[in-house]
Design goal:
By secondary structure, the chain is of the alpha+beta class. 42% of the residues lie in helices and 27% in strands. The longest helix is centred in the middle third of the chain and has 19 residues, at 41-59. The model has no long low-confidence stretch (mean pLDDT 80).
């Protein structure tokens, strides 16, 4: 990210779920706080467009179970 002008500021972990009696399920997600100096509104708009495009790209990646389903179908044909 530093090659694109982003600077790491801080990281934190968010834990969700419950394990009150030791039998529950929890999951942890690491979040990263980044910053970037920008000079114009146009640059901000470009950054927002890049983030939206990347998010869309990531949303189109099949999950592991979807990939298995696709592989099973491909074996049939």
């Amino acid at each position: 990210m530093s090659a694109l002008g982003w600077k790491f500021e801080q990281a934190y972990v968010k834990v969700s779920g419950s394990s009150g009696n030791g039998y529950g399920s929890t999951s942890s997600t690491t979040h990263y706080l980044l910053s970037k100096d920008v000079d114009s509104i146009q640059e901000i708009n470009n950054i927002i467009d890049e983030i939206k495009a990347k998010k869309s790209e990531l949303n189109n990646i099949p999950t592991e179970s979807e990939q298995r389903d696709t592989n099973s179908i491909n074996k049939i044909f």
